[in-house]
Amino acid sequence: MGPAGEKPLTELEWKSASTQWGQVRINKNAGGHPLRIAGKDVPYGIGTHANSLIAFDLPEGYQRFRARGGIDNGGSDQAGSSSVQFFVYDQQPPAAVGGGSREASAALDGLEVGPELAASLFAAEPQLLSPANIDIDHRGRVWVCEIVNYRGHKGRRPEGDRILILSDTDGDGAVDQEKVFYQGRDIDSPHGVCVLGDKVLVSAGDKVLLFTDSDGDDRPDSKEVLFSGISGTQHDHGIHAVTFGPDGKLYFNFGNNGRQIKDKHGRPIVDMAGNEVAANRQPYQEGMVFRCNLDGSQFETLGWNFRNNWMVTVDSYGAIWQSDNDDDGNKGVRINYVMEFGNYGYKDELTGAGWRAQRTGMSPNVPERHWHINDPGVVPNLLLTGAGSPTGITVYEGSLLPMFRGHLLHCDAGPNVCRAYLLEDDGAGYKATIRNILTGTEDRWFRPSDVKVAPDGSLIVADWYDPGVGGHGMGDLERGRLFRIMPYDADGKYRVPEFDFSTIEGSIEALKNPNYAVRYMAWTSLHDEGEKALPALKKMAASKDPIYRARALWLWGKIDGQGRRAVQQAIEDKAPNIRMTGVRLARQLELDLDQYVTPLLEDPSPQVRRELAVALRHHPSPKVPQLWAALAVQHDGDDRWYLEALGIAAEGRWDECFAAWKKRVGDDWNTPAGRDIVWRSRAEAALPLLVKILQDPATDAAMTDRYMRAFDFHQGEAKQQALRALLGL
Fold first, then answer.
1. Has residue 590 got a pLDDT over 80?
2. What confidence tier does 22 reach under pLDDT thresholds 50, 70, 90?
3. How far apart are the C-alpha atoms of 486 and 65, rounded to whole Å?
4. Which residues contact 63 (CB under 8 A, 6 or more apart)?
5. Measured CA distances, 644 to 306, 373, 376, 436, 584 (Å)
6. H or E element in which residue 540 lies
7. Is 265 exposed, middle or buried (0-12, 13-18, 19+ CB in 10 A)?
8. Is 70 exceeded by the pLDDT of residue 83?
9. Are 78 and 329 in contact (CB under 8 A)?
């Protein structure tokens, strides 16, 4: 308003506009939908999302400003409370409002570094743009999935997206050399890169591609398809990065738009459980986690019913970890320990219904409701971290940053933070506390997309650097950064150790390194040596360090003819993690249950017994029901992890297992532990016991819905008879 009259801002072109999510839009909200406040249409306005900064150059003749603000229904209709603050400035606002300078020279100014840590800028635009995922090779070079051709920007770079190699050749802690390893439209919007010696696995579009650089010139000499037919091209819920495990296998996942996976010829994959790997609820649905050999053989589906499980990682004991995104805005982002062959509850197990669908016993708590935690057959979550957009994850097993050793490192681009999750045992499962590593406290464009461990033990954090995240938006095509995390008193130099993979001694030393690519080189070299490597591996398997023991035992057990000896040493170890390693190794080698299950049936660690239960799943031995019952009678009635492990074990033979348990407990079944097993069971014989529980005056009325929900997971006439009995008919 002013001498020139009134003029709506919607008729002016802004000088700049940024938002933390979606896009700043005229007459629409940040998600592109009509503006509505309190259910009423707003005829015109500017839709944006916190944190946001919009700048105008006002024309002559206008001196006053008048506006009305409110929370659009796109936000207020989501779970939880909403609030908003509006500010009007007649000069450049403080950095905390808009993020300050966007120049690389000021990249650290808006970031907060965790205690005992230091951060440095390792690389920045124009050296790289929008890194979606990174890996670090055995030479300390950072490989980058650089994205420009994503969604609305598809085709912006006609030559295609790129895989870059960034090097710090003088060791001063900053990248000074950039190479393009590969560029092409066939890798547009790459979501994962994994470097294994001369082989590079790239997850992009509907494929996992295998590039081989035979002559070491940092250009691929061949390109092969490892897997194909994956849905979700140009979608962040599609295929994700591959990781090398301590067992010599590949681990990877896709989100709920992946739908299915096929071999290099386009044929559907049937996994080792005999199931076609497709989201058809037979039994798999939504996002999944996989394991296979380096050539794609021995394909296993390890977990399912995730939403957008962005990346998976595995520690030296063989434990699998990942994060998963909720339906955006519902404060249910979660971190998962992937108990193998588990259902993780994004959709109803039997019907495929979404989490909002009404059901008996649904939790009033949105995150718990979101993941169907109240349903029998859903593996619990390690941690709920609130709203966010979770991305890269890894395990830290180095010594440079001892506060993180044995714990998870994770990026969440939504709340602008790279965190550590400090793990603790919790019954048969785990719990974790959060420690922030690098946070965009003032620069909300900081979008950490991945974190990896370098050969020297320092961390490299990739920064997508963008005004928004999620919603398939990409607001900035010109920036991207890498930050390096070190101890607070480090000198900043980047010293990559020298490795000698040509000798057994050199490879043993390399096998102790915290970098996955270094360990791949060492693993391959030692495995090729076969029995010649055994003395050195056995010595490492006797190390005081359990992480080193585990790595040596995996490799020892994978040498022809050595599996039984390695398993025997592992299951006799004093550390539960090593005994679990032994059980996992025995499963992969398909050893007899008597060797590794029977000796550990009464192990003091519920985590070890959890792994024994998982080992029973679909095992052909006639001893399984009795072994299962021996594990079931040790359930304490207060350990959901253990209960779900029993459920995983009994799948396909519930009637036999339940009968063996009932024979052992007899009339003493009606305890908290027994009620838990009845609730989780899918055996027909559990149905009359459910009726007894519900008719028992001692049953807390608040638990009625829980037990009634269990009926939904049974079918047939026995269920109908039980329900009639419950009604007194």
1. yes
2. low
3. 48
4. 1, 2, 3
5. 17, 11, 8, 31, 18
6. helix 534-540
7. exposed
8. no
9. yes
Q: What is the DSSP string of 614-655?
A: HHHTT---TTHHHHHHHHHTT--SS-HHHHHHHHHHHTT-HH
**695: buried, middle or exposed (CB in 10 Å: 19+, 13-18, 0-12)?**
exposed
Give the distance, in angstroms, between the CA of residue 571 and the centroid of all CA atoms in the same chain. Answer: 29
DSSP code per residue over 355-413 = TTS--TT--SSHHHHHTTTTSTT-PPPSEEEES--EEEEEEE--SSSGGGTTEEEEEET
b (16+ CB within 10 A) / e for 119-154: bbbbbbbebbbbbbbbbbbbebbbbbbbbbbbeeee
Element of type H or E holding 425: strand 417-426
User: In 3-state terms, what secondary structure has residue 304?
Assistant: strand
8 A C-beta contact, residue 471 and residue 414: no
Q: Which residue has the tokens 């785990």?
A: 430
Buried b (16+ CB within 10 A) or exposed e, 636-670: eeebbbbbbbbbbbbbebbebbbbbbbeebeeebe
N- to C-terminal Cα separation, the chain: 77
Rounded CA gap, 616 and 623, in Å?
Answer: 9
Amino acid identity for residue 508 in this structure: I
| pLDDT tens, position by position, 175-196 | 999 999 999 999 999 999 999 9
Q: Exposure of 322 by Cβ count < 10 A (0-12 exposed, 13-18 middle, 19+ buried)?
A: buried
Residues 6+ apart with CB under 8 A from 590: none
pLDDT score recorded for residue 96: 44
Task: Report how far residue 291's alpha carbon sits from residue 287's, in angstroms, rounded to the nearest whole number.
Answer: 14
CB-based contacts of 498: which residues, under 8 Å, 6+ apart? none
Q: 684-712: per-residue pLDDT in tens?
A: 999 999 999 999 999 999 999 999 999 99
Q: Where are the beta strands (DSSP E) in 293-337?
A: 300-306, 312-314, 320-324, 333-337
Separation CA 282–CA 694 (nearest Å): 31
Sign of CA pseudo-dihedral 363, 347, 314, 247:
positive
DSSP helix/strand/coil, 522? helix
Report angle CA 182, 185, 187 to the nearest 5 degrees.
60
* Cβ–Cβ under 8 Å, residues 411 and 446: no
Q: Is 135 helix (H, G, I), strand (E, B) or coil?
A: strand
**Distance of CA 84 to CAs 46, 467, 537, 646, 685, Å?**
15, 18, 60, 47, 55
74 Cβ contact partners less than 8 Å away, ≥ 6 residues apart? 29, 30, 31, 33, 36
Query: Sheet holding 320-324: strands in order across?
Result: 312-314, 320-324, 333-337, 383-386
How far apart CA 647 and CA 627 sit, in angstroms, is 14
Pairing type for strands 383-386 and 390-396 reads unpaired
Name 503's Cβ contacts closer than 8 Å, sequence gap at least 6: none
Residues 6+ apart with CB under 8 A from 61: 2, 3, 4, 5
Helix or strand (DSSP H, E) at 695: helix 686-695
Which residues have a Cβ under 8 Å from the Cβ of 432 and sit 6 or more positions away? Answer: 335, 382, 383, 407, 408, 421, 422, 423, 424
